[in-house]
Amino acid sequence: MKIKQNFHIHSHHSCDSACATIRDIQKEQEALGVAVFGLSDHLHTRYNLPDVVSAYRDYLGILPHKDFHFGVEITCMTQWECEAINSGDFTPISDEPIYGLRRDVPKQGKYCLDITDEEIRANGIEFIVAGVHWPDGFPKTLADSIDNLFVQEMFLASHPLVDVVAHPWYPLELTAGDWFRHRDQAHIDWNAHTAIPRELNDQLGAEMLKHGKLAEINLSEIVGRPDCVVTARMECYARWREAGLKFTIGSDQHSAHADAAQFAAAEKLLNQYGFQESDFALPF
To answer: Average model confidence (pLDDT) for the chain?
Structure first.
């Protein structure tokens, strides 16, 4: 099948390493034959909201065509860290608070998306892609890592503001490998994806379907990954498809320019697992 949509693209306004201009994004997605696409820069907490505001102004400034949409990628956050960041009640460590407060969790419980309906309207946000980007604290075992991410994914799957659940089960390889404490290649456990219980995948798919969410097939998570990861993810997506769940495509572009080879490789995988254009929907 030909990929004709892309609703996960980051511009240079995003708070991480992304560096594409919004004008180049429009031009290059059109050149790839992508018919409808959307910007989705990161918002972890309200601390990043100025990045979204500047991205929206830049987006309007290029006079985008009607099939180029404005969205945002929001991270599942703990309530305590959002409250601490918004009140300034913390001592920053390393790159905090850009990515939240990545440390041992002082209190468990509530999750949140740190944005309001008013902020969504004021910034022209047409769709929300929401993802898990790190564990809640530092899980000690593989089972703990899986449960930690699963609870966050289920929160997103039922949240009223969410349109698309981004890259399901990312970043299990980092969480299980304790990468967030050590931050090196030796602490990545790719095999962790083969340990996800089928019943958890089925519950997550059912929750997204129940609440009318779309699941994202993230090209960066199925192209260039170890075979064990690709197989685990594609087989999961195929089961969700058979259960009636619909999907979006997201390249998760952070580079300055779109990667045509990534799209070509992903199209082969989608064909291999029997995906068709009718399996994909729009997030608005």
So the answer is: 96
